[in-house]
Batch of 3 targets.
Target 1
Amino acid sequence: MMGYAESHADLARGAELSELATGDLARRDANGLYHITGRLSRMSKIAGLRIGHDAIERALAAQGHEAAVWGDDSRISIAICGAEDGIAAMAAQLTGIGQQHFTIHPRKSLPRRANGKIDYPALKAQSAQRKPARNVLAAFQAAFAPQSVGRNDSFAALGGDSLRHVELSLALDEALGGAPAGWENMPISTLEQAAPAPGASLPFDLVARVAAILAVVVAHQTLWPVFGGAAAMVILMGMSVAGFRWEALKSGDMRSFFKPVAAVLIPYYLILAGYAAVWEQVPWVSVFLAGNFAVTIPETHLMLPYLYWFIEAYLQMTLLVALPFAVPPLRRWLASQGAFRTGLCFLAFAVALRLIVPEVWQIGGRAQFTVPWVFYLFALGWCITAASTLRQRLLVLGAACLIMPAAAYLGGNWYGGWIKYMWLLALVAGLLFVTRLPMPRFAARPLMRLAQAAFPIYLLHRFVPELLMPMIGLEARSPLNDALAIIGGLALGLAAAAAQRQLIQAWTNARNRGGHGNSDQLPRWIA
């Protein structure tokens, strides 16, 4: 290497360099020969892997795809001539990183310079103007990873659940400027081209989720009369099951029906393991999710604190709903009745439970943590989602107008009960007749983050006043300490939700590297 010659006289000077930093990438073969493979500037480092854009192009070309690749350390773009289906999955398999790191730009042809080389500046400018996917496909791939996701899939077809629903609502708000109405049933290809929801607004059920978790946190820390947060979460639970798991029930696909349960039980058992380590004793009653049966008390360390009754009731109600669908003749009959009539059957059964069981199974105040005490709220939520006509919605509202005052009366007929059940009645009316709630744009995303973190907040918020604050001497009750406990509990849940997203992403990347990465298919070229 002599360097660069500025004039003909420089050619007579001889070699003056031991190395020349050209920015080219090369590989050395077994004979000691070097083969130029690309440019250092055409390189991305994602998930700890150096990925050459030229190497991706060659690998795709070897499989019959004309493509141009560019990107940075956060995202790789692939312009592809012809059909785009499967390109992101192929690139993920070749590189060992997740599909969510790729943006695919379908094109009829690639712009080229006079010498036949790809005109990357022109290609980048054209792709930026077209805004092809707006990260919608990437958002779905991240939410459903490691499940394969294509542009013909929809949220409903992929078997989405309530947790993914909130997550994708947030992602679509960022990608589209607002999730359009009915997006759950739209193919991703249609959703990419959809107009956002008009104005700044959020789905009413998402706002209800935020109100419910705030009520839970505040009620657990203060004496304010904000009762019924957990009850509202039970209603939303019923809506979620009817909305996202009805198809699995009526087809008898119990594996799909129970799949979302793992997202609830895994963090629950992690917390249980933490209590067991601190107590030096396994809370066996809570291991079997029977703490709300009043067989013991938390002071024995055989069960977790009362707070976690919600998870126990969740699983018990999930099993109760699945039971009739596990009997084929009964499942066929319920499926023939449709989701709304099935919900009415559940509601009638739940009301009977609420009236009869507390009379024969008298466990005092702890009855409020049991399935007979809350299953009618779940059934109301189911009916809210399944009601598709005005007549059906009015029927559900009428039932709620009878049930809620009766529940307040039977629950002790005290002012707290009436506050709780009257706001639940107002919530039912809102969920039935209000689709979206207008709000300032600056408030939308924080509320969506709170909704996304509702479950981690529920699990962890009491760690702040009961564990962290006493460690720094903040045990006395005061308005300031109450505010710190509430804000700290929300912040801890938000941090846990963010950490969970990062762990899922890291796990997905590691899985892709371990299961799909192949150095023979696409070497990690280095300078």
Target 2
Amino acid sequence: MVARLLTLLVVLVTLALPALAQEQATLVSDSLEITGDTRLIADGHVEVFFKGRRLTASRIVFDQATNRLEITGPIVLTDDAGETLILASQADLAADMSEGILTSARLVLNQQLQLAAAEMRRVSGRYTELQSVAASSCKVCAGDPTPLWEIRARRVVHDEVARQIYFDRAQFRLAGVPLLYIPRLRMPDPTLKRSSGFLMPTIRTTSDLGTGIKLPYFIVLGRSADLTLTPYLTTKQSRTVELRYRQAFATGDIELTGSVSRDDLIPGKTRGYLRLKGGFTLPARYKLSFDGQTVTDPAYMLDYGIDNTDRLDSRIEITRTRRNEFISARIISFQTLRDDEDNTTIPSVVADLTFHRRFSLGPLGGEGGLRLQTHNHYRSSTSPIDGPDSDAIADGRDLGRISARIDWRRSFILPLGIEGTVLGEMTADGYRISEDLAFAGSTTRTHGSAGIELRWPWVKAEAGGGSQVIEPVVQLLYSSSDVETLPNEDSALVEFDEGNLFALDRFPGSDAVERGPRANVGISWTRFDPQGWSMGVTLGRVFREADLGQFGPGSGLAGVQSDWLAAANFTLADGLAITGRLVMDDGLSLTKGEARVTLNGPKTSVATSMIWAVADPLENRPDPTRELSVDARRKLNPNWAATFSGRYDFVTDQGTLAGLGLEFLNECVRFDVYLSRRFTSSTSVSPTTDFGLSLDLVGFGSGGAAGPARACRQ
């Protein structure tokens, strides 16, 4: 018995195998014997390293005269990348292991797909040919040798260069039951990321379209582009072709998706949808992004399960963001799908240009800001009056605005730890309005606000490591009470929350500004626990010198005194987060309320939200809103998961959306099934039930990432 002395064996191999030595072959074994000047016998824990391949066996006999290897197993042959593994009991191979025959062999690709064969033949160092093959990526247990799925074939050829697998006389079996016979089948091996061919089909059933099947075909157009075409045929005479084109460039990428349909829902009409999106990096750290979409009719996207949006937002934008600077130029186009809106009377084209800069003010101290902005929007209607939609906006109103704003704030630390801040801002706007009898013409507006803010944080450090912070805040502001007559289109919806309780202006846009002397008063309490949970509460209110009628009843900001704002948040280290906000009057009657609960646990994920708001015509809400939505996912075991989603409208006392789903994922199968129901209806859409089913073979074709493997019972 000879010890594993690698240096000595390399010398022996070099002397005995000159052809192999030229290629830097290395052999290691427990014992080594040379007989007849032409035969080398390595016995016991043999390892051979050659051309990036590694072979292990119990015995190898090399015959220099025939330049062949006789190998006794168990045999394990791997490539340099570890993506291909060959197991066998015996082998007769060429010296460079590029050709030969292996018996009782198994080929494992990318540690996923296994091909077991009675005989395996290596050809030209490129092809592996297998006879009487069973292929599967499922784990096989001794007590249950039947895999969940497998492909039986008379003959299989694996092309290592093209990374393709060719099946001859293939039979697909599920749990051992033959389901499908395919005379010829070609599939990419798991190491190939992109290859032209069919992807796994999807079955979808809806009450409007019937039962249909989608069969995607993926086409590689080069190293950086591909196209997917998906025919979709249903039992209710719907014929659809979907497409997706993708291309990557050195500085960005684009994606084009769309579909064309003919169905009986709208007889005689070709229906369709198109979307183009992408982004690019430009010189000087600018970024270009675009997203354009259009649809032939309002119901198409809902009918075919594309999206449930009710307005299409198409835009192109160039931006640059730096530490103290933001620049944006964008053009936006809107296409409404709502029954109560007309594309000719909404701002269908919007153009904005924004420059925002923050800077220090040197000897003056503090921080300042400058914002320059232009805004234009266009309506295709030319009517200068409000039409049948009765939205208090002239149907053809076109508007252009240029705005400039400067702001400044500086903080000081006063006695007793009080933080005092002096702040203010000033804006100037120029408007040009056309196609509107009430506001047509050009006008200007200037507005300024100034004030002081006092914060007095109280901090308590607890013996156990926790901490509490109580912070009362008083903000006294002055601004002019004069009101100009200007249209308000971008600030109709006003929120009152802890984020803008101490803001100089609570209007979200530029058309309206908050006016009049006022005091913003509030107090907050926060506790941080060393166990990882935290809790915060905020209570506040706005007091005004006079009610200028700027806010509607649904905002909570109307009147000399606003409604009370109460907000709370609670977060646990295990992923549970609860947030809530209430806006209520002195009688504790609710004006607005919102609550959200999220849980991201190892087995359960839940996201719920509830909103409550009174009716307010100024916010385009003629009826109150009371709605609950839930999205949940529960992991039933390592392989099975259930999903649920729902939305309920308490005003109409009915559900608007409900969905159930079941998912299964293990080492070789991904299975998804869902059932959903949309209860709402309009002139363009009707209540619809949707059922879908998809099955992917993991490690085979487009199956994707594997899940937990099943456990074998002892």
Target 3
Amino acid sequence: MNKLKIYLFEILLLLFTIGIPYSLSTSETVGGMAASFLIFIVLRYINYWLFAICFSFIALTCALLLPATIWFGYPTITMISAFLETNFQEAKEFTQSLPLYAYMLSIAVLFFAGYILYLGKKKRYIYNKKSILITTLIAVVAIVLTIERPIRKMNEKQGFEFQHSHTLIFSFYDSLYKDITAYYELRKNIGINVDLPPSWKINAVTPRYQDYVLVIGESVRRDYMSLYGFSVENSKFLKTVKGTVLDGFTSTAANTTNALLRMFIQMKGVDFVYENNIISLAKQAGFETFWISNQGLVGEWDTPIANLSSLADHRRFMKLGHYESKSVYDSGLLAPFKEYLSLPATRPRLFMLHLVGSHPLFEQRLEHPVHYNYYNTNLSSYIQTIEQTDRLLEQIYEILQAKKQSFSLLYFSDHGLETKDRNSPNASLAHGISKASFCVPFVIINSDDTLHKEVHISKSGYHFIDGFAQWLGIKENGLNKTYHFFSPPADSLKVFTGKYVPFNSLPEDKVILNNKK
């Protein structure tokens, strides 16, 4: 017991070190854990306050991120961009959506870390030649374990980078810093380069319809739609309307900005040609463009998508997206849509409606009380948000029909969601990187359609701009003139999860089956 008491600080510090990768939802080698532990020991030997500052910073990181990493996993650039783009209202909703036990674990981490700090302050070391020599050797071992892998990868990565180290207390922060830097670089570029003259070379423009309407859904995975075989009827309009349903459309990424940028902006390899985007393409082809959004606009929370929308001839945002931003139902988009549609049409027109759709928290998206009884309130609310979007699409369709002009209506969702706490009564859906996070609905409804058709073919959002041009009747030199959303050949599927990976390498995530009769 005396021995245990003497070394209790070191034992608990080792346990905490082992727990760091679990708090951050990542992995660490035994060598990396050993290096982290040895660094803590050396810091405490040198000076308690030096140890306390470094250890507290890491402990706070673990405690703050733990609730989110339990549900969302390691904070990839997708998760980071979603966090940096959120406003106060969305942040409030996000914290409310996380399970209570996640916060309890976070508090437990803080108490555990606090007790280690208390023991560390009481710890007394003997300073003599022997202890200094041993501590120096420990420091050398820790340094070697930390820098060995970055040195090995210097030629491959063209420089020394701590993010490649096995020692998590270095690699995590370096990786996080680089992801945040990359995010702000992306924002800076999109804010500047969308205003550059586009380099489109348009050969011909032959639109079949007067009005084109692109409805951008939010957070809808198609396997929770009755349109695609879900057991609960929640997409009656899309199931019966005369039009074409694509079963096989795969989004490019698992959050709004990363997904839509890769669909709406021309890419050369993995690089964006920001000035060449769907709005500049439509405008150069002679279309009058309208953007109506139920997502945020102003303040420090501006997103690249909001900046992209600034290119439209007319735009309307239902909420400003700052701290005072209020929740607005998607039905609020109908009034400005009617207003814009009633304007005199002297040329083809493109209307883009960006929904809040099925964004978590689901119940707060609903205009009416939950009437489904599927598994739990979370899932019942989610499938009802899809029903609500289906009804909105029906209303848009009816408005277009009443105008008595030819039209084409395209609806798809930016990304899907992933199951969280699958076997829990509190199971829900949130951002993730399973296959379901990329499998989204895609439907085109034309005013002259005479049949309801379903097409089963794999199509990738990375070719969206090619299909978009074909949809509008635009032929452009740099785009695939033969590409069609509903025709062979099938696309090869890749997705962006912070890096580009094959779609088939992602884990499965099936629909939660109802346990209520």
